Amino acid sequence: MATTTSTSSSHAHADHGHADHGPELQHHFSTAAQQKEAATLGMWVFLVTEVMLFGGIFMAYAVYRWAFPDIWAEAAYHLNTPLGTINTVVLLVSSLTVALAVSAAEAGKRTRIIQLIVVTMLLGLAFLGLKAYEYSEKFAHCAGYSTPIEWVTNTNQHAVYECLVPGQAFLFPADKTTGASNAPTVAGQPTPYQLFFLLYFIATGLHAVHMLIGLAIMSYLVFITWRGTISSTYFTPVEIGGLYWHLIDIVWVFLFPLFYLVH
Amino acid sequence: MAHHEHEHERGHIGPATYYKVFAALMVLMFLTVGAWWVEGMLNIPRALGVFIAVAIASTKTVLIVLFFMHIKVSSRVTQLYAVAALVALLFMFVITMGDYFARGWPPELGPLP
Predict the structure, then answer these.
(1) Which of A97, A116, A231, B61 has the fewest CB atoms within 10 Å, i.e. is most exposed?
(2) Contacts of residue B34 in chain A, CB cutoff 8 Å?
(3) Across residues B20-37, what is the average pLDDT?
(4) In 3D, which of A20, A91, A109, A50 has the Cα closest to residue A240?
(5) B-chain residue closest to A93, CA distance
(6) Of B74, B88, B100, which is closest to A48 when you measure between CB atoms?
(7) Quick check: B75 and A41 CB within 8 A?
(8) What pLDDT is stored for residue A146 in this prediction?
């Protein structure tokens, strides 16, 4: 067990029995286990609100997919399923590394925790990179380029044949097999196709925002582990940070089949 | 206080379990993509395809929640909150879809106003 150190805080606490635990135990908890339990429960309460936040989007998805099943199937054809599959694998691996980081924290292996969290962050960045490529592909089509690379290098511009970003310029191609249609739908026409892509951008966009917050949390965990705050007796931050990361993974587990795997 | 301390000594999930759960998640991931691929060639009812996809995603979620998120070895009150999320979602879906159906959903297809 941790011994009392000579910091000013332990000095202030010296008269009411804080010698048997580390400085991380707050006054209003009687034991470290009780404090950990409260933190875990608090995180779960927050996760329930997160489930309801994404639940609202899935609710809207259910309502409109029920109404427009054929349009959903046609629209989903235009999403990049191979990239979505790779991203699913990336996120599942990152969930494993987070779980292993919590194990390393239980064992008090600080170097191992940092290694595993850094791997998690790299996987998170890879996910966001692929997602950004997918988004830029859609925006490049609106600008009249086939790929984002051509857009950046300003080569091979052609007439816009599809624009799957919701808005005034939205243009769903009439022929789904070739993509490049000679008879496109009218630009800006408010069709249910836009609903699919609106939900796609909102759902994956909100998910990406959560990934960014997750990355910030992971950086903080690396910092406090490196500083020495995390030990085998106190690793609650790693554990509840991990809970957040797993929730992001679960959201993607549903987003992937519902947007990329539609017939 | 001694019995309280004892109460918090729960089960433990180690790396061996994490690897097994991860393997199961990967199998389920390939299963969902495989099902989608096969469904593209067969002409099965669309609702069945959605059911398979959601069933696989739910199984993955249960695995992640139970093992990666430690709900299997968590306290009763934490488990209750995890289930509460599911119950709240069910309320939202059942009541909202019930209302839509009662009003005749889906509406007649036609040009949007």
Answers:
(1) A231
(2) none
(3) 96
(4) A50
(5) B22
(6) B88
(7) yes
(8) 85
Q: Compute the nearest-CA separation of B105 from chain A (Å).
A: 7
Instruction: Tell me the C-alpha distance between A151 and A180, whole Å.
Output: 17
What's the one-letter identity of residue A102?
Answer: V
Selecting from A96, A243, A263 the residue whose C-beta is nearest the C-beta of B39 gives A263
Q: Are A187 and A168 in contact (CB under 8 A)?
A: yes
On whether any CB of chain B is under 8 Å from the CB of A246, the answer is: yes
* Whole-angstrom distance, CA of residue A44 vs CA of residue A103: 20
Backbone φ, ψ for residue A162 (5° rounding): -150, 145
- Closest in A44, A59, A263 to B82, CB measured: A44
Alpha helices in chain A (DSSP H): 8-13, 32-67, 69-76, 81-106, 110-143, 148-153, 192-227, 236-255
Q: Could you tell me if A66 and B101 are in contact, meaning their C-beta atoms sit under 8 angstroms apart?
A: no
Output the six-digit token pair for A31: 């034991």
> Do A32 and B9 contact (CB within 8 A), yes or no?
no
Give which of B86, B69, B91, B90 is closest to B18, Cα–Cα: B69
* Domain topology for A33-260: Four Helix Bundle (Hemerythrin (Met), subunit A) (1.20.120)
As a whole number of angstroms, the distance between CA B18 and CA A173 comes to 45
pLDDT one-digit tens code per residue, A220-229: 999 999 999 9
Pairwise CB contact (< 8 Å): A254 & B88: no
Q: What contacts A104, CB < 8 A, 6 or more positions away?
A: A112, A113, A116
Please give the Cα distance from A173 to A207 (Å, whole number): 27
- Cβ-in-10-Å burial (0-12, 13-18, 19+) of A63 comes to middle
Cα separation, A187 vs A77, whole angstroms: 19
Tokens of A180: 């490049």
ipTM given for this complex: 0.88
Q: Write out the two tokens for A49.
A: 């609100």
How far separated are the first and last CA of chain B, in Å rounded? 68
Residue B108: per-residue pLDDT? 66
**B98 to chain A, minimum CA–CA distance in Å?**
11
Least confident of A13-17, A18-22, A163-167: A13-17
Per the CB < 8 A criterion, the answer to whether A37 and B75 are in contact is yes
pTM of the shown model: 0.87
